[in-house]
Amino acid sequence: MELETLELINKLGNDIKSTQIYINFKEISDKVENSDEIKILSYKKDLAIMEYEDALNHYGKNSEETLKASKNMSEAIYKLNNHPLVKEYNTKLSLLNALLKEVDKELFGEIYD
After folding, report:
1. Residue 42 — φ and ψ, nearest 5°?
2. What pTM did the predictor assign?
3. Which residues neighbour 87 within 8 Å (Cβ) at sequence distance 6 or greater?
4. Are 36 and 93 in contact (CB under 8 A)?
5. How many CB atoms lie under 10 A from the CB of residue 93?
6. At CA 19, angle to CA 7 and CA 27, rounded to 5?
7. Which residue did the predictor score with more confidence, 43 or 106?
8. 86 near 32, Cβ under 8 Å?
9. In the 8-state DSSP scheme, what is residue 113?
């Protein structure tokens, strides 16, 4: 019984990986991961977050320095999130998550109900 279950789980995993939704997600994921432009935007976002946290710790919540750092952080996050590859990645991820949620519902729906 356990071997049969493992084989079915393996088959399900392979079936999911062969769907166009997964293939599309994997392709855009690879593009995002290898994009120097996105790496730079991500680095700038991380740096802006650290600068905001430092300003918050040193100057307080409503200081001019903290507000400026907050604005810079928001702009860095916005630029990263609105990059066309990141937007496409998020769309493809949403579709993949919907597929996986449907599989989860079919497999375990009765357990959760």
Report:
1. -65, -40
2. 0.84
3. 81
4. no
5. 13
6. 120
7. 43
8. yes
9. -
